[in-house]
Amino acid sequence: MPKRKRETKTPTQLRNARKRKAKKREKATARLQDPSLVYIDDPLSAPTVLQAKHFFKELGQRLPLQLKAKEGWRSSAKLAVRRGADGLKIGLFLPKSHEIISVLGCSAHHPAINQALEAITVIGASGKIKGYDELDGTGDLRYVKLDVERSTELVQVTLVWNASSQEEAGSSLSWLLKKLKRHELWHSIWLNFNAADKHTSRILAYEKEAWLQVHGPKRFLREALHSVEGEAVELCFPPFVFRQANLCAFEDIVSLARHFVPAQSVVVELYGGVGTIGLHLADRVSSLVCSDENPHNRLCFKRSAKALPEELRPHLSYVQGDAASQVKSVPTADVVIVDPPRKGLDEAVLQALCRSRKKKQQRLIYVSCGFPAFQRDCQKLIDAGWTVHHAEGFILFPGADHLETFCVFDRA
C-alpha cells in the first residue's frame, strides 16, 4: 500500500494554526478561573440546578429547564476595578477571595460591553488613573457598571469613584472623561461618588448627591421586551435602579407570568423594581399596585406607564417602600407577585402570605434568584396550606452555579 503524502503547510497556515491553539488554551484557562463560566460546557449540570430538580421531584413536580444563548447574553455588568501592574485590573472576584480575574473579551458579555471594557482598559494603561487599593483605601476608580441599550448597542457606563464629589476627584477624573468621550460607544456616562471612608460594602452609593450624569441624553435608557405579548412597554433603566443582567432570558419569565394571571385580577407586586413584570400585565388586571424600596423606581414606573394606552393607566399605581411595609395589601389581592433578592422573602412578607386567606382562590407567583432561600420559603408556604401549581427553572447565567426559579402557588 503506497504511503500517504505528508501535507505541507505554508508559514501563514502554521501561524494561524498556532494562533487558534493559543486562543483555545486561553479560553480553556478562562473557564477554569472565571467563576461565571465554570459550568459553561453543560449549564444543566450545575449543582444548584440538580438540587432544584431533586427538590421538586420530592414534591411530586417535574421541573422543566429553560436555557437560551450561552454567549453574548449579559447586557448589564458590575465589575470591580483594582490596581494592576499594567494599569487598571477590571473583572470579577474569584470565589472567597479579593483576587480579580480579568473578564476582558468574556464570551458571556454582550459585544458592546467587551468593546467598552477594552476602551477603558487601554485608557487605563497610561497609568494616569489608579485602580482602587483595598489595603490602604487609596486609588481612583473602584467599580464600573455597564448597561447596554440593546436596540442601539450603546453602553450606559457608570464610573464609581473613590471621592465624595467631582471637585474632590480632581484632574484625573477630568482627564479620563475627556478620553472616554472621544469614543462613540456611549449612550451616556455617569459618575457615582462612593468614597472608601464611608465604610460601606455597597458597590454604589444611592444618595441623590452621589450621582452625576456628564455625557449623553437626559432621557433614560429604555428597553422593550419584544417577545412579551400584550401592550408594548418601554422600561426605564437609569444606572441607579436594578436591571436583570440577562434580559433576553428574563423576557420568557415575564411571558410566563402573564399566562398565570387571570383576566381582571387584582394584583399586588412586591419587590417590583421598575415594574419589569407588573407593567406587562397592564391589559390583564383590574388593578395593579407595585412597590419597591428603591426611591428611584417610582419615577421609572411612572414614565413607562405614561406611554401605555390612556384607558389602562388608572389601573396602575406604585408605592415606594420595602416589601415588609406593604404586607397589609397581601390579603386584598387575587394574585401576589414577588421577585425578592437572593436572601428570599422578608419574614414579615412570608408570615403575611402564610396567614392570608380569601373567600376565593388566591395565587402567588414567586420568582426567585436564590434557590436555597426559595427552598426554605417554599416549604413554609406548603406547610401553611399553599400548593405548587406550576414550576420552571431558567438558566439566566449559563456557566454559573445559579438557577432562576419560577413557581406558581395556589391556595383555596
From TrEMBL:
Range of residues in the leader sequence: none
GO biological process: methylation
Domain of life: Eukaryota
Region feature Disordered, mapped onto this chain: 1-30
Gene3D superfamilies noted in UniProt: 2.40.50.1070, Vaccinia Virus protein VP39
PROSITE patterns hit by this protein: SAM_MT_RNA_M5U (PS51687)
GO molecular function: methyltransferase activity
Binding site for S-adenosyl-L-methionine: 244, 271, 292, 339
Basic residues bias spans: 16-26
Keyword field: Methyltransferase, S-adenosyl-L-methionine, Transferase
Family: Belongs to the class I-like SAM-binding methyltransferase superfamily. RNA M5U methyltransferase family.
Protein name: Uncharacterized protein
Organism taxonomic ancestry: Eukaryota, Sar, Alveolata, Dinophyceae, Suessiales
